[in-house]
Amino acid sequence: MAPQTAPSAAHCRRLREVWRSAGWPCHDAIEIELLAGGWLERVRQPGGHETLRVTDAGVALLADTLARHRARRDAHEALVERVAREMVRGGRLAWRGLALRAKVGEAWTVAMPDLFSIRNTTVEHYLEPVVHEIKVQRSDLLADLKREAKRAAYLQLGGECWYVIRAGIAEPDEVPPECGVLVAGDTRLEVARPAPRRAQSLPFGTWMALARATPVEGWRDDEAQGWLGGEPT
Questions:
Q1: CA distance 224 to 9
Q2: What gap in Å lies between CA 110 and CA 102, rounded to an integer?
Q3: What is the pTM of this model?
């Protein structure tokens, strides 16, 4: 049977679950729609019980979904890398993929900003920690903006919090005013709205997380030392 309706994210999740499992039916609305659409089929087993199997159309749908997710992830990672390099070129130390504890209200939460950076300095008051959250899809941005606790955690971690958005996916005023907005065009990053700056020190837990992680590659220490005595060799 040819698929009859456009699949949703919930349909694709269920297909993946069936693909990875023994195919036991749930008998719910999503399963009915997958069966009617031709992405699943019922299989009568020798013992008389019925299981589900992903059809060829279902496998094609999973492959297409995987390709779209990979393309989206690649675009996101490319922009994260681009912003990280800009931070390093600006004399900052930058980290990707950190898991940092932040207190929101009376509860502790783990925040995972796309990019966390500090100034390359030995003076704690000059660190200026900054959080960058990267968005290349409008749906991802809108979903993220609804997560007030996540944004509050970022504001606890950084003296500045920025949303970096791919050009065309949103207007700057859609982002809450407590965050800055960088718009990523084809060739440059443009400040659409500066982030409010607040004095922010790093708690001990954040220092430990930075110590365990590897920053984005930049200049080497021996290259930096060369400038202290004149022209680098």
A1: 49
A2: 6
A3: 0.70
